[in-house]
Specification:
The protein has 482 residues and is an alpha/beta fold. The protein has helices at 5-8, 45-63, 67-83, 85-96, 100-120, 159-171, 185-197, 212-221, 234-245, 269-281, 298-312, 333-348, 380-383, 399-407, 422-431, and strands spanning 13-15, 18-20, 24-29, 36-42, 127-130, 137-144, 147-151, 174-178, 204-206, 225-231, 250-254, 259-263, 291-297, 352-355, 370-373, 390-396, 411-412, 414-418, 436-439, 454-455, 458-459, 472-479. The structure holds adenosine-5'-diphosphate (ADP). Belongs to the aldehyde dehydrogenase family.
Length: 482
């Protein structure tokens, strides 16, 4: 069923199957031109505590539905998301800035997790294990952990919620999410569709608020919450892990990255450029799996750079709703200033701008698609998550040095390399300390694959057959007297 776009634009939070208002409101703006889209209810921490109460109350009913019943409701939610892909995509572009084709791609990507976990809901198998004596058996059951709370970022306003909520609901958990205050509209539209799909009151709740710290405390400290899941920066993630410690919650963290993208001398350079364009410039470089350090072997460095520059020069900045636009604005002025400073400070240390290098103008939030050569592994662009449309090209000599440079970071989310030699492909794949390795592939996200990081990029996996584990408890039954 396709709804009118207006029916998907909500200005209240969604708690216990109701749209609720608050004393205060906050403004949601379009990063393309700063225009106000809508004012949304700014919930207090007390109201968020009530939302947890609603999720807690709804838990036993949801848990006790059959897996088939939960699966059918999730399938309806999936179908509604796909039926409304155009309107959801437009709304996402308006609040977030990414080009419409990408926004619609995100809706399909988010929905694919709802479908995937609707199917996985049916396959929560246990085990029977031989017992220690003839009249004993060991049985293993898997049961939902309970109320799950989540905090999600602005760069994927639909998919970061769908990945978590679909798994939680499939497992039989109830869910309360605080979306980033920059992008609450996609989350609220998802709530409307969950409601239309018939997902019961209290099972999926969206709490909108600008009080990140106050609400963050409630979501991580209320003892009725059994699991907390976060996608965002490593710095905030560390605080939230600590906050979860007092009530010993299960925790999943999808934190920052510093993805290496390596091009070896035996690589197909055209394919490598293609992969880099997909990995680097999606969402104007604002993803945690974007290539951050592009390491290129000396002997192919100039050839790779020339091919890359041809492609980067034709990227088109503009309003994501307009045809042909491939690069949207950055999310806010702090993001723009951060990217500009990383470029400026690296240039001061010897990096050379090949194209771009500046904010597009004084008023907007656009940063020019940029390539820099001569970048050193210790320069600011190499040591920080850039989160902008900037490619630093770092030369390397041999495979050993490439792996050392790639692993020389606290992060371990995504990595990429291009090579053809099968021995090298194994050695490098096994040598990289990363949760995800794209081998001759720049587009790595898929509901069937386990997404997640090592080191300070976090723990837990989203999507795939492993994705339900984070939302399930394992219960061991010791059967005696048989
Ligand atoms: P990003 O760089 O992607 O904005 P953040 O970690 O700053 O990453 O934000 C991700 C999410 O965490 C957002 O929803 C934001 O509102 C929330 N957040 C930021 N600071 C805190 C905090 N101290 N406690 C709880 N949530 C926070």
């Amino acid at each position: 069923m396709t709804l009118k776009k207006q029916a998907l634009i909500k200005d209240k939070a969604f708690v216990d199957g109701q749209w609720i208002s608050a004393t205060d409101e906050f403004s949601v703006t379009n990063p393309y031109d700063g225009s106000e889209l809508v004012k949304v209810a700014d919930l207090s921490p007390e109201q968020v505590t009530s939302a947890i109460g609603a999720a807690h109350k709804a838990f036993s009913g949801w848990k006790n539905k059959t897996a088939g019943e939960r699966s059918e409701l999730l399938m309806k939610w999936y179908q509604l998301m796909m039926d409304n892909q155009q309107a959801l995509g437009e709304l996402l572009t308006e609040e977030q800035g990414k080009p419409l084709a990408e926004a619609k791609g995100e809706i399909a990507y988010g929905a694919s997790f709802v479908k995937w976990f609707a199917e996985e809901a049916l396959r929560v198998y246990g085990d029977t294990i031989p017992g220690p004596s003839p009249d004993n058996r060991i049985m293993v059951l898997k049961q939902p952990v309970g109320v799950v709370t989540a905090i999600t970022p602005w760069n994927f306003p639909n998919a970061m919620i769908a990945r978590k909520a679909a798994a939680a609901l499939a497992a039989g958990c109830t869910f309360v999410v605080k979306p980033a205050s920059e992008t609450p509209l996609s989350a609220l539209a998802m709530a409307e569709l969950a409601h239309q799909a018939g997902i019961p009151a209290g099972v999926f709740n969206v709490v909108t608020s600008t009080d990140s710290k106050g609400v963050g405390k409630v979501l991580t400290q209320d003892d009725r919450v059994r699991k907390f899941t976060f996608t965002g920066s490593t710095e905030v993630g560390k605080t939230l892990i600590k906050q979860c410690a007092d009530t010993v919650k299960k925790v999943s963290m999808e934190l920052g990255g510093n993805a290496p993208f390596m091009v070896f001398d035996d690589a197909d350079l055209d394919a490598a450029v293609e992969g880099l364009m997909a990995s680097k410039f999606r969402n104007a470089g604002q993803t945690c799996i974007c290539a951050n350090r592009v390491l290129v072997q000396d002997s192919v460095y100039d050839a790779f750079k020339a091919k890359l520059l041809e492609r980067v020069k034709v990227l088109e900045m503009g309003n994501g709703l307009d045809d042909g636009v491939t690069i949207g604005p950055l999310i806010n002025s702090a993001a723009l200033e951060k990217v500009a400073k990383l470029v400026k400070d690296s240039v001061a240390q010897g990096a050379k701008i090949e194209v771009g290098g500046e904010p597009a103008d004084d008023e907007s939030l656009f940063f020019e698609p940029t390539v820099l050569s001569n970048v050193g592994p210790d320069m600011p662009l190499s040591c920080n998550e850039i989160f902008g449309p900037v490619v630093p090209l770092i030369p390397f000599k041999d495979e050993k040095q490439a792996i050392e440079l790639a692993n020389d970071t606290d992060f371990g989310l995504a990595s990429y390399f291009y090579a053809r030699d099968i021995g090298r492909i194994w050695r490098v794949s096994e040598g990289l300390d990363y949760g995800i390795v794209g081998v001759n592939e720049g587009a790595i996200s898929n509901a069937a694959a386990p997404f997640g990081g090592m080191k300070q990029s976090g723990f837990g996996r989203e999507g795939s057959k492993y994705g339900l584990d984070d939302y399930l408890e394992i219960k061991y039954l010791a059967l005696g007297g048989l």
